[in-house]
Amino acid sequence: MGCGSSQVSGGAGLSSFPVIKSQHSLVAKHVTKEKWDKLHEHKTATAGFTLAKAIACAVEFDNQHCGIYAGDWDSYKDFAEVFDPIIQEYHGISADAKHTSDMDFSKITGNINPEAPVHSTRIRVGRSIDGFGLSPGITKEQRVGVEDLMKKAFGKFEGELAGEYFPLTGMDEAVRQQLVDDHFLFMSGDRNLQVAGMERDWPEGRGIFHNKEKTFLVWVNEEDQLRIISMEKKGDVLGVFKRLASGIEAVRNTVKEESGKDFMLDEKYGYVHSCPTNLGTGMRASVHIDLPGWTAHGVDKLKARCEELALQPRGTRGESGGQTGHTYDISNKHRLGYSEVQLVQTMIDGVNKLYEEDLELQKQSQTVDSFPKILSEHSLVAKHVTKEKWDKLSGHKTATAGFTLAKAIACAVEFDNQH
Question: Does the N terminus or the C terminus of the chain have fewer Cβ atoms within 10 A?
Fold first, then answer.
């Protein structure tokens, strides 16, 4: 489907103020006619990107919250009158905020409780190499240049990070199927990415690297130039973060050796990404964990609790995949304004808290659901709280205090000496 590139190239020639379909988006709020008239004819130096291309998704769709992408580092600078207020509002930062990065894993205290039912842990970041465009604006030559540079870099990885690069162009069917089975492969067909211009010249210049153990991955030229991912089964978040830190350093060092280029790092906005929502750390640290107690208590209540803990819950099928069963993807909510160490620490502490609370909620729901064993066998409670009465009343909560029959008889259930 070529509609992504046609929308964007068509958008590039817009001269009149566009109709922004996403009326409640940050683009609709901050791209005024005055700013449009001032900026719409400008093209950035690196990728020839325009404001029309940047806001293509908010113009094309009616469901965008943010609705803007950058085509190169220049976009953030040249269209700062639009990008700055959007970034500040989305991330909740002040106009004079400065971003600090910190990948020092030795500063992390503790880890996920080994008894917590965690299926897997995954931490990813995005990185962009200076001198090349970002995915929405990158030229064909630049995209191939990023891939060539990364092929050389991957060839120098050693030890735990050593592995193989699989280009999407000309990919063998058996390799493709294995990457699908491993859930490693990224696909074309995302309408947002198409309209934003990120799927032009598909699949050229794109590919996937993974190490032998399949615990370290790099996606080349997807939504960002580089998506660097560390993952493994179970809940050793510290180990996963440690591998990520050494992996990022290996990518950075080898790219510098090969080209003299470094990652795009802005003193105000941290690591530069195509989507402003990922600015800062660009980090998403997540675990897949079973929370049956919270599920019974209510998914909306879990979402509210995660908000308090600066976490974000999702179904395990991704951002818009919905929720099945009682397994959740729990990750850090923030990207900008906090260091990587702070975000990983927040995730570890928050997940441990959710697990602790989940056990308590499971106990409560069991007490409500099944007729309790009354240890004080000769008490008045044992005589008068029959199974029939329990089944009738156990689900009721009083209006004033939300009190239940289970709470009322707790002492007779817990102790064997009650009268």
Answer: C
Handedness of CA 46, 48, 51, 56 (dihedral sign): negative
Q: What is the pLDDT of residue 366?
A: 66
User: Which pLDDT does position 57 carry in this prediction?
Assistant: 96
Question: In the structure, what pLDDT confidence band is assigned to residue 390 with cuts at 50, 70 and 90?
Answer: confident
**Please, what sign has the CA dihedral across residues 367, 370, 374, 379?**
positive
Q: Rounded to a whole number, what is the distance in angstroms from the first to the last CA of the chain?
A: 76
Which candidate, 5, 60, 57, places its Cα nearest to that of 202? 5
Which amino acid does the sequence have at 13? G
Burial class (CB in 10 A: 0-12, 13-18, 19+), 302: buried
Separation in Å, CA 319 to CA 71, 191, 314, 415 = 23, 15, 6, 47
DSSP bridge partners of 230: 123, 216
Looking at residue 394, what is its pLDDT?
A: 84
State the pLDDT at residue 79: 98
Residue 306 burial (C-beta neighbours within 10 Å; 0-12, 13-18, 19+): buried
pLDDT at 387: 87
C-alpha of 382 from chain center: 52
pLDDT at 395 over 90: no
pTM of the shown model: 0.81
pLDDT for the residue 72: 97
Task: Please identify which residue in the block is written with the tokens 């009738």.
Answer: 392
Q: Which residues are catalytic?
A: 124, 223, 227, 275, 277, 284, 314, 319
Q: Residue 397 is encoded by which pair of tokens?
A: 């909560």
Query: What is the Cα–Cα distance from 328 to 392, expressed in whole angstroms?
Result: 33
Burial class (CB in 10 A: 0-12, 13-18, 19+), 170: exposed
